[in-house]
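Review form for a predicted model. The reviewer records the input and the model, then writes brief findings.
Reviewer: anonymous (R2)
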Amino acid sequence: MEFLKFTEEKLLKMISSKIKVLVVDDSAIVRKIFNEELSREPDIEVVGTAPDPYVARDKIVQLRPDVVTLDIEMPRMDGLTFLKKLMKYYPLPVIIVSSLSPKGSTMALEAMESGAVEVLSKPGSSYSVGDMCIHLKEKIRAAARVNINRQRQESLIPSPATITKSLSETTQKVIAIGASTGGTEALKEVLMNTPVNSPGIVIVQHMPAKFTTAFAERLNKMCRIEVREAKDGDSVLNGRALIAPGNFHMLIRRNGAKYFVTVKDGPLVHHQRPAVDVLFKSVSQYVGANAIGVIMTGMGADGATGLRAMKDAGAKTIAQDEASCVVFGMPKEAIKLGGVDKTVPLDRIASEIVHFINQ
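Model under review:
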């Protein structure tokens, strides 16, 4: 009897600890696929589905989900409008599920600025249902751990008005940055505060294909430095930031005194492509002590071993602190591995980079 009692209590605990998900999508096929795939996971429970925001509103109040997956383009009310209302009256972690169209990508980025924590692309010619479901499960687990109050604060903070003091002189250094959940808004703050004569910057932000194109274009309009999605062979130049394209790894290489990037396919690393570790390890090899590594908000351990390799090669390394992270996963793992020289709040990362450069 004691054994049965223990088993029952353990089972109830497991059930209660499941991540409760509400799927909001006007496509019955998408709702069915999400429900079937997610229900196979022992730690995830689909508590309901909704074909539009009006039904979703009632089900959120009734079912109290931990995470909502939300389509952008829906009848009666689009997902972006619903998200803004939700963040105002009933804030909770939302994953945007959108098409790869330019309009879908742009609206998804607006959703991230409005408080969504992750973005996922719907299956297409180069992105299978299986791939999408793998990423969806990981994003749900990440979203469930999000500090939603921190996420809302980041989305409500106006764009930085002050720019970090310019460098005393140009350098041949390279800045490598890695981020995931919460990283789109965090990167915006860092890059908008980056001096125009900054060393070349290479960035991995976990994001699907096509969305990185719109993300780079959006940042390029906001920042004094040039921001672009990387293409194979692009030079790493002062005043330029290169963002790894979604679904491709990005590595840095050296030709004489010049650095350039290689963009290529390859296996998922930490369930990611692009992966921060792939970039950081190449930076440790080809840039060494001339580099500065930054690990920012995100779930998981991607970037931790790469940042340690950079530090071992002589690079200076920075981690975003727990209080300013939406998810303190990647920085925490990097700190545990001993790969971090300094841990600072988000609003001090840009100035800390300048400090290391001027040293």
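Findings: The radius of gyration is 21 Å.
Further findings: Residues 174-358 form a domain with the Rossmann fold fold (CATH 3.40.50.180).
Recommendation: see findings above.
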